[in-house]
Structures are given as C-alpha cells and as structure tokens.
Amino acid sequence: MSVNSTQTTHITPVTQQEIAQNWQTICHISDLVANAGICALVRDQQIAIFYLPEDNSVFAIDNYDPIGKANVLSRGLIAAHGDELVVASPLYKQHFCLRTGRCLTEEQHSIRSWPARVTGTKVEISAP
Amino acid sequence: MTQPTVATPSAHLKPQIIVVGNGMVGHQFLQSLADSDQLQNFSVTVYCEENDLAYDRVKLSSYFSGATKADLAIGDAEEYASWGLNVITGETVTAIDRHQHKVITDAGTEQHYHKLILATGSYPFVPPVPGHDRERCLVYRTLDDLHLIRDAAVNAKSGVVIGGGLLGLEAAKALTDLGLQTHVVEFAPRLMAVQLDAGGGDMLQHKIEALGVQVHTNKNTQQICAGKETFHCMQFADGEQLETDLIVFSAGIRPRDELAKSSLLETGERGGIVINNQCQTSDPDIYAIGECALWNQQIFGLVAPGYQMAKVAADHLIGGAMSFTGADISTKLKLMGVDVASIGDAHARTPGARSYTFTDEHNEVYKRLIVSADNKQLLGAIMVGDTEDYGSLLQYMLNGIELPANPDTLILPHYIADGSEQSGLGVAALPESAQICSCHDVSKGAVKSAVANGCCSLSDVKNSTKAATGCGGCAALVTDVLNHELEAIGVTVNRDLCEHFAYSRQDLYNLIRVENIRSFSEFFNLHGKGQSQGCEICKPAIGSMLASCWNDYILEDQHVSLQDTNDTFLANMQKDGTYSVVPRIPGGEITPDRLIVIGQIAKDYNLYTKITGGQRIDLFGARLEQLPPIWQRLVDAGFETGHAYGKSLRTVKSCVGSSWCRYGVDDSLGLAIEVENRYKGLRSPHKIKFAVSGCTRECAEAQSKDIGIIATEKGWNLYVCGNGGMKPRHGDLFATDLDKATLLQYIDRLLMFYIKTAERLQRTSVWMDNLEGGLNYLQDVIINDSLNIGAELEQQMQQVIGSYQCEWKTTLQDPQALKRFRHFVNSDTPDNNIRFEEIRQQISPIKAEAINIISDRSA
C-alpha cells in the first residue's frame, strides 16, 4: 500500500499555511470504515473523518451539522455528484463537500474542513 | 318583494321536492342538487322503498365474492342528514294526487310536493311459464334478492340462470361464487344477443364454458316442475330437460311505471314514463329519470344514461339549461373474468354498413369493426377476449374521427404493427372534448391540463382528475394521453435511478437477480457510470435490493457504506443525534417479564419510553455508544431487532381476536404473530405494515395497512395496498374467505411482486395505482397467476424467510462492527451537544437554540 500524502488535501492556501505544521495522529487506519465516516475529538473539536480505500484517501470536516444542529455528519452517506464528493447529512440530507466543507444547498451554512492524510497505518489531521 | 301577499300555509316554506326512489339514479339526482349548492333553497323528501339506502347495483355480484353492504353503499344517511334531506326508508309511495300535488304512501301518510321526481327504476321480468312461482325461483335485482338466493343456495348443488344477457351472466357469476354448478339458459341463439353478434356470442360462450358454466342457447322453457334428483326440473320446448336446485330469472327488465299509469301520466305502449329533453313527464311538475323513463321511444337499461337524466332534471329544477339528448349505450365489462365490449351499431343495422372481422381461436379473441359504406366512419364494434382498444375505438365513433386507410389494422394484434405505433390509433387524433373516462366524465382536455399542471404519473392524474378511478377500464387510454402529453411538452420520462445507473429500479432489480450480483461494487463495475462511489440515491436503493434478494447480513463490509444512518446503526436517528431503540414485539403480545426488562433498561439508561402506534415500545434518547450494551440486554432477554429503522416489515398490529374477545371470529393474534415472524426482516421499496383483525369490527384497523387481514366466518379476507402517512388510503378487498395457506401464498406473491416492480421509495398504494389495470390486474397476476411467476415469487420469498437473522444479534457478536458504535474514535467522552430536560417526568431533548445559550455560558 503506497502512501500518498500530497493529493489528500484541498483547502484554501491561507488556511494551509496556518496549520501546515500541526499534523497529529488521530487513530489507526483499521479504526476507519471504508467509504464511510467516523468521528474524532481533536482539542475539543468534533471532526468527521471519511475514508476512501480506493485511493487510500481521508477527508476531515466538522462533525457538527449547522442546519440540523447536531453532531452527526460523520454518520452521513458519502455521495459523488459529478466530480464532487459530498456527505449527505443524516438529518435533513443537505450536501457538504468533503474537500472544502462547502454546503452545496445552503452556502451560508458551509463548515470547516481540515487537512487529513494517511501515513503508514496512522491517520493524521492538521488542526490548530 | 314589497307587495304584501296573502299568507297561505305553504307560502313561508321552501319549495317542496319529493324524490320517489333511492337507487343509483335517485342518489345521483340528490348528489347533483347538492353539488349545485342550491339544496338549501328546497325542502327535499326522499322515499326509499328498500330498507337500505342507495347502493351500487352494478356491482351486486361482488356481494358473493366478499363485498359487504358497506362496500356497495352509495347513499349515506349521515351525508343525507348533512344535506338537510328528509329520508324515509322502508316506505312505498302508492299513489300520486296530481290535482292536489301530493303523494300517498303505504303507511298512509300524505305529503305535499311542488315538484315530484320519479326515480322508480325497473323490475326484473319473469316470463309467465308454468311453475315460475315455485319456491326457489328467484330474481336478481336487490340486496334482498341476494339474501334469498344465498339462503336458497345453502343446501343446493346446482343453479340455473334464465337469461344470458348482461345481467344474467352477472347472476351466473354470483351462483358460481356461491359454489353452485351453474347453468345459463338463453332463449336466443347466443349470449348477450343485444350487444354481440354470432361470432362474439360464440366466443363468449366458449370462454364461459371453459370456466365450468354450462350454457344452453336456443332453449325455450315451457314448464318448471318438481325434479327427481333435484328440487326443480325445467322442461324445454325441444323436449330436453334440466334438473336444478335453484332458478334465477334474469330475462330483462321492465320499467316501474305503475305510479305514473295510475295517475294518468303518459306512458309508452310497452311501458315507460314518457319524458321530454328536460326529463319532464306529461305533467311539467313531475319528472322521471332512469330506467322508469321512456325518452324518444327508448328505455335505457344502463346506469350512465340514468345519471345523465338525473343531472338534467336537477339542473332544470334550479333553472339551468341542460338537456338530455340520448346516450351512447356502448359498454365494456368483465363478465366472469371475460373481457367483453360492444360499441355503437354492433349489429350493422346502418344501411350500407360493412364490417371487418378478426378471429383468433388460439388466444380466443374475437373482434369486429362496423364501418360506414364509404369506409371512413366507425359505426360500431364488438370485442370479446381483448378489449384493450375499447377506449380508442369508442372515441373514433363518438367523435366521428376519420378512419385510417385500412381500418382493419385497428383490430389486428399489435405485433403486426412492427413494434411501431399502430396506424392511426394514437391518442393524438382525439379532440380535446373526447371523453376518456366515462365513469367520471373526464375529457382528454382535462387530462391534458392536469399534465400541464404538473402531473407526471398515472397516479397523479388519477388524484387530480378522478379519471380511471371508477371502473378503471380507461387506465390504458389515460396512460396513453399522459405519455403523449408529457412528450408533447418536452418531458422525457427519465426513469434512470440516478447519474450512476442508467436503469429504472425494476431493471436494476432484474439485473441483480439474473446476473446474481452480490455487492454494490460488483454492480457498479458491470453497469455503473461516473464515480464509483455512487450516491445517496443509488447506494441505499441497491443496498435494499441486494437485501431483498439475498438477505445477507446488512452490515457486512461490502454493504455497510451503502446504508443510511438508521440502517448502519440499526436504530432511528432522532433530531439531536441520539437514537431510538425498538425491539420487535410480534403482534403486540409481550410477557410481564419482558415488559420488566424493557422498563429496567429504560430506567438504567434514562430513556424516554412511549407505546407506538404499531403496538411496540419506543425507547428514545440512546446515545450511539449506548446502543450495543442496551441491545445486548434486550437480546439476552430474547428480543429481536424490530427493524423500525429499515424500509422493511415494521409491525403486524392485532386485536386479541377469538382468544379473549366476545366477538372474535378467529385467532387474529396467533395469525398476526405468525405473519410477523414470517416476514420480519424483509426489505422492500418502502416500509410495510400489516394488521390482522379477528372480526369485522376491525379493531386492528387492518384496512389502513399495506396488508390487512380480517377474519370472517368462512376464513380470512385479504385487503391490500392501504396506508397511513401523508396520503392515507384504505386498502382494497383483494380476496375473501381464504384458508391460511392460500392467504400466505397470496401475500408471499404480492409482496415479492411489489419488491420486484415498484419504484424506489414507492408505497404499495402508489405502486398499485400505477399498474395498468390496477387492482384487477394485480388479482390476475397473484390469484390467477396470469404471468406464470407465482411459484418463482413464492420460492424467492421462501429464500428470504429461510435466511432471516436478527441483525442486532449478529452485530453484537462482531467486535469489528461494534467499533463503529463509538461516538469518538479516539475518546470515550460523550457528545456534549446532547442535553435533556425533564417533561412529564421523562427526558426530552433541549431545543438546539437553548443548547447554544448553555454552551455560550459555559465557554
């Protein structure tokens, strides 16, 4: 299994600079669920981590659904719409982009995304 | 009115209307008056000779195949009361005093009228052959007649219907439904001599005989006397004899015009009250409508013209300008399961008329077209065995649409048309005014505007226009108009499931079966397109189909990411991200020990508890990580998962039936538990609910369920495709008096057929509405096995039943699966967003806004 850390993150450059150094190990890769999400607690932040085994990539966004107002996004279904990968909220089905956290249906409810990668058997997130 | 008037006793009263007769036509008159919103301007009295208010006489024979009085009822005492009518049942008007404007009844009452409506209908004609008045010689006309027939049939083995017309064949169906060896005796050389020609009559006879009814044509009954082996012996003019236990006369009808005759209204030479185009008799204050009326020397023995007269009379009373100008007596029906139709000049009596005839002895189809001498106009048609083109042909005739160059193509089988549209038979040719649905008088234009207003399916059109909701015979034609209109406004009906699969759900299901596909990724590799991740449409849909077909453990690695959160965590997510726990309680029966277990668990985890509408117990407020330990305790106590989270069988509601209830006819509770255990875990396009009632009191409300079962003295009645939800719908009576094996066989077949053919998230009710032919078609497929798939459906259901497992039990044994139930992968801290307050001594989620305030304060 080759590790590819360059293609896993796509966030705005500013944010990337700010937090580029803060990689921290969250869990073992066997804790992830293929093609689905889990939730991690990172410095009091609830972060949803999604795992696509096909290219060994992981994505990290806020777990809090700002529309349903509950910590549930890690339990949503991953969906591909065109080229965009999203998670559909399990509460009211709004789509949040896995790469950017953008809410495709209601922009004003967009959430944060975080750099994430798989290094060896470790899952790492860069969060402040 | 400023002029003072001399008060007479009636001057302050509203105009008095008396309606004599509360049959289908009499009811329609009242309905029309009510619809006009002018009912309150009149004082209306209705005399109903029978004890029952108006009922559907056309469907009388269904009384013997399980329909109840309530099913047949049209008139409704409560509704009449709300209309302010004075309805008097069981009383007959015996005389009219035209001079003093009053009627006199057999109870001796006299009542004044300003306007009088005679809707007295007709009576069955009994030929005066010697012996016609013997015991067990009956007629077929009213509910009371049916009771007499039923009583007479108790110890009878055989029955004869005299008269092979439309009603006679209906009566014959009633006798076969009563289990009698049935004969039809007809004076004419063929059946339905009024509507059919020799070829059609022969084909109909052949088909009916194949159903076990013996048909005797050219038979002139000379005498009925006592039989040797049986109660009667019929002696015919040709010297032959026929022994039978019971005789039903159905040799035509005669108008009930005796009131009119005795009050010297004008009547026809051969009976019938003469009316004009406004349905007035020779006395302008008296109207006659329906089968008692004679218009232009014609009596109409069908209900549609009677309805038309009722509307005209009501309209005239309130000053409208409608008039009755005759009625088309074309007819299409299913007689004993045989499709028969007759249009217009079926006997080619028009001078110069020519005809085209098609006979297919292999498939037992006979069709004849009667066209004008110049080959351009359709004058009439006869169809036996295949009436699919009835709607289109009727429109050709009614609208005088010019025929295509070769009219014979209109009756030739469709495959001759080389797969393309049949020549000229398209709905495009019909004018806007063409009546598509005759039961509810819906025109092509009305269907068209319904489509323009957003209707995209047959079911939408039905709801919006009522088209195809009466007899249902026009469903095919309505569908044609619908599809044509959708195409015309540029709507391509795209039935692709989503951007990843260019197939309908039904196609996908067939692919899974035929290619033995076992996983989403395998399916995507073979038939998918775009990103292999799929989406929130195709993943759960295919997950559900895989489960319906193979019933694998739903959380196996290859399936787990396909499921919506409820299926993934085997519980229902609530608004705050907690879950509900719903153990299965088959039939609602639970031991005290198990009740205590549930109560103890709820107490230990501080869960909110509630009894559900489906006779189970909801436990609310469980956090994700609490689900496994809660379920471990439930499974240890013998509970199974209730599938409250899945598109699957939910509950089978039940009353206690014969085990405890004073009125229970059969063991509804035992059956409910049995069917719940049979179908538990079955995944389907939408959730499915059942109920079983132990008697017709219907305490389990079975008629509002997808599958409803009601005990009768003779077995189980099966109702199908009802539902609650946003659009509640009562189930339709599907089959009656079934033994348990047959009942389960029908349910197996029906549910599997639904699973195979319904759209994603389509309820059984919408599914059935969208089947062309609706209930009748479904009965044909399930009961008569017309597609020859019954055994296959049963076998597929058996596979699901045989591979049932409790998903929670399996999950609890799998440490890998249990890892997913942690809220945080890296911490045991609970989700701090879940907060409760106490309401009515139980927990309740704090509103999200309130949580924010709390968080702000604590931050």
Give the helices and strands, then pairings.
The complex is a heterodimer of chains A (128) and B (859).
Chain A: H1 13-19, E1 23-28, E2 36-42, E3 45-52, E4 57-62, E5 64-65, E6 70-71, E7 77-81, E8 84-88, E9 95-97, E10 113-114, E11 116-119, E12 122-126
Antiparallel strand pairs in A: 1-12, 2-3, 3-4, 4-10, 5-6, 7-8, 8-9, 11-12
Chain B: E1 16-20, H1 24-35, E2 43-48, H2 69-72, H3 77-82, E3 86-89, E4 93-97, E5 102-105, E6 110-112, E7 115-118, E8 122-124, E9 137-139, H4 143-153, E10 158-162, H5 166-177, E11 181-185, H6 198-210, E12 214-216, E13 221-226, E14 232-236, E15 241-244, E16 247-249, E17 253-255, H7 258-262, E18 273-275, E19 286-288, E20 293-295, H8 303-317, E21 331-335, E22 338-344, E23 354-360, E24 365-371, E25 378-384, H9 390-399, E26 435-437, E27 442-443, H10 444-452, H11 458-465, H12 475-488, H13 505-514, H14 520-527, H15 538-550, H16 557-560, H17 565-568, E28 572-573, E29 579-581, H18 592-604, E30 608-611, E31 617-622, H19 627-636, E32 649-654, H20 668-679, E33 688-693, E34 707-712, E35 715-720, E36 732-738, H21 740-757, H22 764-770, H23 774-782, H24 790-802, H25 807-812, H26 815-819, E37 836-839, E38 842-845, H27 848-858
Parallel strand pairs in B: 1-2, 1-7, 2-3, 7-19, 9-16, 10-11, 10-16, 11-12, 18-20, 32-33, 33-34
Antiparallel strand pairs in B: 4-5, 5-6, 8-17, 13-14, 14-15, 21-22, 22-25, 23-24, 24-25, 26-27, 28-29, 29-31, 30-31, 34-35, 35-36, 37-38
